[in-house]
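Notebook entry, cofactor series.
This is the third protein in the set we're modelling with a bound small molecule. For this one the ligand is zinc ion. I'm keeping the input format identical across the series so the outputs can be compared line by line later. Sequence and SMILES below, as received.
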Amino acid sequence: MGLDAFVRCRCWEDGTYHPPPPIPAERIGVVDGSLEPLVDGEWRDFDRWKRTACAHPDMDAACVLAELTYFDALPDVGTETVLLDEGSGEVETRLVSPAEFAYVVEPLRRVCQVSVETGNPVVWC
Ligand SMILES: [Zn+2]
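Returned structure with ligand:
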């Protein structure tokens, strides 16, 4: 199970995209936090345009792809925790530092920071 999320950029609202979308702007809207065509059957050309319409791939200002299995393995930070060394099978008890979880926490912090900067919500997928 994944804990994926993205934040849409502001290029649609700010008009900083190029070229114009392949369908009229009044048939484009934000649905569940994502910029989408509002009429069925207009996805293919719209998706192709959206991929490169601005400096942000797919008009996402930030995204994170995190596997929940990482979180299953997260012990409480700053507490003495029993860890199993899968290589040797030995059990170790030690304090866990926040830095050990930076690979999970930093992408999540970044997506939340971009949400504040853009004013667009974090969309969890
Ligand atoms: Zn953009």
